[in-house]
Specification:
This protein is 47% helix and 13% strand. By secondary structure, it is α/β, with parallel strands linked by helices. A six-stranded parallel β-sheet has the order 3-2-1-4-5-6, sandwiched between helices. A six-stranded parallel β-sheet has the order 11-10-9-12-13-14. Strands 7-8 form a two-stranded parallel ribbon. Helix 1 links the parallel strand 1 and strand 2. Helix 1 crosses helix 3 and helix 5 runs parallel beside helix 6. The chain is elongated, with a radius of gyration of 25 Å. It binds uridine-5'-diphosphate-xylopyranose (UDX).
């Protein structure tokens, strides 16, 4: 059954959802106040960098199932389901600003005609869907509507693929009419066996935060063990091998690196930590996740400064990677940039390159220089640092890179390079989660000393 869906907001979530729902056969209108963006989207320009988005956008515009508009009134009047997918920008103290969600509720309210399901797609604290309901009821007491919470779990770079093959669709509702519309929207996926979970509205809201907080905590913990290995010996890759073999832990989402970033994890974990502060002693562990992640980036910068025995203000670093992960142009809360900022504060000079994030990085970072490719970034550098796991970096001509750099140290903070190949090219390789070569034996010896002395004393 084709559902008339109207999506408010054409940001990352709104646009992906609009394009995918149209592709599933629904009749979709996506509304945004930004007229220039509407014009570009209507002309088939996806505006953001997302794998497969352009193809689906163009195909569904052509089919007539997808249109873009800046006319809220018509778009809402026709809809069976209105999805609010506007931004929820984080504030300095961690709480999310719900102004755009509330404004969307006010804008929708007067135009609701006939029974309509209203759904908040944006990630929001528990209680927000009900607040949207209250705002609509206040602005339009005659409106006939029901609430649905339908959080998304999409990863940037894989959003289309994950939307079409979700591990679960979550529908939070208490009105059976809302649930029926939600089920109809996702029927093309559930028919193919994709699981659909129904919960209360609040559980759906909390589940989204819980999922991201679990994943972020997993990475923070993993990177704390990477830190430990860097200091006492051991290799995090071998440790991960052991962890992954335990089915309770599982093999996924266990890549050590410079920490997590992006538009979701830092924002969502910060929002939960903020929420916990208002709940007495709740969330003791949750509140430590962001500080742990930030310390990781600080320690990696310190590692570079310690290894390169060059006065920091003379130090030249070739930085490879600026985006928060590969296959995106997004630099929001990028751990790569956090490491660069620490180096910069120490006085180092940074020459950086990224395959897709240069334009955004130019807006986000000041006082660094940008290179046209990896070799140019390495030119004259005391050390080269890999900060994002781009495929392009795995295929580097390492001899050419070594010839460009002035110093022999190569820090692979994503463990993407082949160890032997790097060493053959004449670099000294410093991997994430493993002690630096020159230090490994000293460190292990130092770490082992007090314990073995104590033991021998106890025995004597
Ligand atoms: C995340 C969630 O995965 C998604 O479900 C949610 O809806 C939005 O937030 P996204 O931010 O696109 O998605 O990226 P993701 O691939 O999850 O990576 C987040 C961060 O963790 C990145 O900085 C990435 O480099 C890092 N990461 C991820 C690791 O360091 N190691 C890993 O094993 C996985």
């Amino acid at each position: 059954m084709s559902v008339k869906v109207t999506i408010v907001g054409t940001g990352y979530v709104g646009l992906t959802t609009a394009v995918c729902l149209a592709d599933l056969g629904h009749d979709v209108v996506a509304v945004d106040v930004n007229a220039e963006k509407i014009a570009r989207l209507s002309a088939g320009d996806p505006v953001i960098h997302e794998t497969g988005l352009k193809r689906l956008l163009v195909a569904n515009l052509a089919s007539g199932r997808l249109t873009f508009s800046n006319q809220m009134s018509d778009a809402v009047r026709r809809a069976d389901l209105v999805m609010i997918a506007v931004g929820t920008p984080p504030q300095a103290d961690g709480h999310v600003d719900l102004t755009f969600v509330e404004e969307a509720a006010d804008d929708i309210a007067p135009h609701l005609a006939g029974f309509t399901v209203v759904c908040v797609k944006s990630t929001v604290p528990a209680g927000t869907n009900r607040r949207v309901g209250e705002l609509i009821a206040y602005a339009n007491p005659r409106a006939d509507f029901a609430l649905l919470s339908n959080p998304e779990f999409l990863r940037e770079g894989r959003a289309i693929e994950e939307f079409m093959n979700p591990e679960r669709v979550v529908l939070g509702a208490e009105d059976p009419r809302a649930l029926a519309v939600g089920r109809a929207v996702y029927e093309p996926l559930t028919k193919r066996g994709r699981p659909l979970l129904t919960t209360s509205i609040e559980s759906a809201e909390v589940a989204k935060y819980a999922a991201n907080t679990f994943l972020a905590a997993r990475l923070a913990l993993l990177n704390e063990f990477a830190d430990i290995c860097e200091q006492v010996g051991g290799d995090i890759e071998e440790v991960v091998g052991v962890l992954s073999a335990d089915s309770r832990i599982g093999p996924h989402f266990l890549e050590p690196g410079p920490g997590f970033g992006g538009s979701c994890f830092p924002k969502d974990v910060g929002a939960v930590a903020y929420l916990c502060e208002g709940l007495g002693d709740a969330g003791g562990l949750i509140r430590t996740i962001l500080p742990s992640n930030a310390r990781r980036q600080q320690r990696l910068a310190r590692r570079i400064l310690e290894v390169c025995a060059v006065e920091p203000r003379q130090l030249r670093i070739g930085a490879l990677g600026l985006t928060f992960k590969a296959d995106t142009d997004d630099v929001r809360d990028s751990p790569a940039i956090a490491v660069i900022e620490h180096l910069k504060r120490a006085g180092a000079h940074i020459l950086a390159y990224d395959p897709a994030g240069m334009a955004n990085a130019r807006q986000a970072v000041t006082a660094i220089d940008f290179a046209g490719d990896a070799y140019e970034a390495a030119a004259g550098a005391h050390a080269v640092v890999v900060l994002t796991e781009w495929q392009e970096f795995r295929a580097l001509d390492l001899a050419k890179l070594r010839a460009a750099a002035s110093g022999p140290d190569l820090f692979d903070f994503r463990n993407v390079l082949d160890r032997q190949a790097v060493e053959r090219a004449g670099f000294i390789l410093h991997r994430t989660g493993a002690a630096s070569p020159s230090r490994r034996h000293d460190r292990v010896a130092v770490a082992a000393q007090p314990r073995s002395r104590q033991r021998s004393r106890a025995r004597s």
